[in-house]
Amino acid sequence: MACSSHNDVTSRDAIWYRYDGDDWDSYDALPPGVRRRMQDHAYDPWAVNMFKVWKLFRRRHASSVRAERSLLNHLDLCERMELEEFDITHRRATGTALPHVAAGVSVLRSIR
After folding, report:
1. How far apart are CA 34 and CA 30, in angstroms?
2. End-to-end CA distance of the chain, in Å?
3. Angle 57-107-103 (CA atoms, 0-180°, nearest 5)?
4. CB contact at 8 A, 40 and 71
5. CA angle at 45 for the pair 67 and 42, rounded to the nearest 5°
6. Cβ partners under 8 Å of residue 89, min gap 6
7. Residues 6+ apart with CB under 8 A from 46
8. pLDDT (tens digit, 9 = 90+) per residue, 39-58?
9. If 0-12 CB within 10 Å is exposed, 13-18 middle and 19+ buried, where does residue 54 land?
10. Does the predicted model carry a pTM greater than 0.85?
11. Whether 99 contacts 29, CB under 8 Å
């Protein structure tokens, strides 16, 4: 069963499935580099989903380093897909692009 977030007004449920589980336990089980990237993600990347993908990549690559790199690439891909979907949804509703898409700016990330 999908979880819903009362303050998530995006069209994410049209493109993703959110797995049930403990978000904090899942988040804590991820490598530090992935947790940092999740903090910088433009949208909530759903820790339980990321933990499931992390376990899949660990099995697939048999290397934590390669699995982490793959998961970071996966987060980048998901963020681009979400941005495209949200821009399409916003254009349908308003006739204009999302402001940051129209401005051609990147996602603001923290400086480390």
Report:
1. 6
2. 37
3. 140
4. no
5. 110
6. 10, 11
7. 16, 18, 19, 23
8. 988 888 899 999 999 999 99
9. buried
10. no
11. no
